[in-house]
Design a protein that fits this description.
- There is one protein chain.
- This protein is α/β, with parallel strands linked by helices and 332 residues long.
- It has 2 domains: 42 residues, no CATH class; 280 residues, TIM Barrel (Alpha-Beta Barrel).
- The chain has 12 helices and 11 strands.
- The chain has a 5-stranded parallel β-sheet.
- Helix 3 packs parallel to helix 12, helix 7 crosses helix 8 and helix 10 packs parallel to helix 11.
Length: 332
């Protein structure tokens, strides 16, 4: 039934009847398209691939969760991939080698979306060690067939602190640190591009790229050919930025995303209480998706949940429900 007209099928026709009925069918289909009450299913647009970060399961405080359980959860949610940044010995801890873990994600029809790489890029004394670690990261990404490096800026204080430190309250040196790290970031970006991989600057609270003017400075000082942007919607918001406006401003340099919702006023250093599942905070994700549709963005959108009041599976399910009901209908 289409627009109140029943169309018969499985009828044996001679050639003249076939031509006649084909013409009628064409008229009906055209009418349906015009009035919008019928639609012809087409293959979904493959521009967007959705992933979630292992961090949600790895850092859960309620109990230890294996990466195999996390992969099962993600596979059951119908997601495309996982952002996986293995800590030293992490695969061994769960009984995997690189090869067996690659086999597991392939079996579950998942991909590695990207890898996080943070360091004190502004410190020349650490340059050689950072460069060696970066090449190892590229090696790892190529092994898994992934193409994105999320560049985590230096902390405002102690980088070894997972919150990236509190600093000493004196922020006058931050612009100089950003200027000092920019040439090295350009160099890393070129090395990555030559390897078929792309890096992107990742604004994050408690780092030297937190506030809108800090975002602008590092983007101005880096080469668009080699250095893109990986917006983190939650951290941009908590850092005082307008998420939609910043994404619009750097629309030509987007190569990867961290999606998270956030609310309230950030009180340094603990941002956990401000983080929410998608659709539960203040971020205008609908407008973000409209921008991505407008620019025909092709790439990964990764839900990175730094903190949750739920279990990891509950949190992932909640965000995936919002994605399926609200975001995919806009652009996928």
């Amino acid at each position: 039934m289409c627009n109140g007209i029943r169309v018969k099928s499985n009828i044996i026709m001679n050639r003249r009847e076939f031509i006649k009925n084909a013409a009628i069918s064409s008229i009906l289909i055209a009418g349906a398209a015009k009035f919008g009450s019928c639609s012809v299913k087409t293959k979904s647009n493959p521009n967007i691939r959705w992933s979630m970060g292992w961090i949600l399961w790895r850092d859960f405080k309620g109990r230890d969760i294996s990466i195999a359980e996390a992969i099962d959860n993600l596979s059951g949610l119908g997601i495309d991939g996982i952002e996986f940044t293995p800590r030293k010995g992490e695969l061994d801890k769960f009984g995997f080698s690189r090869e067996s873990f690659r086999d597991l994600i392939a079996e579950k029809k998942l991909s590695i979306a990207g890898n996080y790489f943070g360091a004190d890029f502004h410190d020349p004394e650490k340059r050689d060690a950072i460069l060696a670690a970066f090449r190892d990261t590229l090696d790892n990404l190529k092994f898994y067939g992934a193409k994105n490096v999320v560049i985590g800026p230096p902390g405002r204080g102690n980088w070894s602190d997972y919150q990236h430190g509190t600093g000493d309250g004196d922020e006058s040196s931050i612009p100089e640190k950003i200027k000092a790290m920019a040439p090295f970031i350009n160099e890393l970006g070129k090395i990555a591009v030559d390897s078929g991989i792309q890096i992107g600057i990742h604004p994050h609270v408690n780092t030297i790229v937190e506030k809108p003017d800090e975002i602008d400075l590092i983007m101005d000082l880096t080469d668009p050919e080699y250095v893109k942007m990986v917006p983190d919607t939650g951290h941009i918001y908590l850092g005082g930025g307008n998420v939609v406006e910043i994404i619009k401003k750097y629309r030509e340099r987007l190569n990867y995303f961290h999606l998270k919702d956030a609310t309230g006023v950030f009180e340094r250093p603990n941002f956990g209480p401000n983080i929410r599942e998608l659709g539960k905070g203040k971020i205008d994700f609908l407008e973000v998706m409209n921008i991505l549709k407008e620019i025909n963005y092709k790439g990964w959108l990764s839900v990175e949940q730094d903190f949750t009041y739920m279990t990891p599976l509950e949190s992932a399910t909640e965000s995936m429900k919002y994605i399926n009901e609200k975001l995919k209908p806009i652009y996928t």
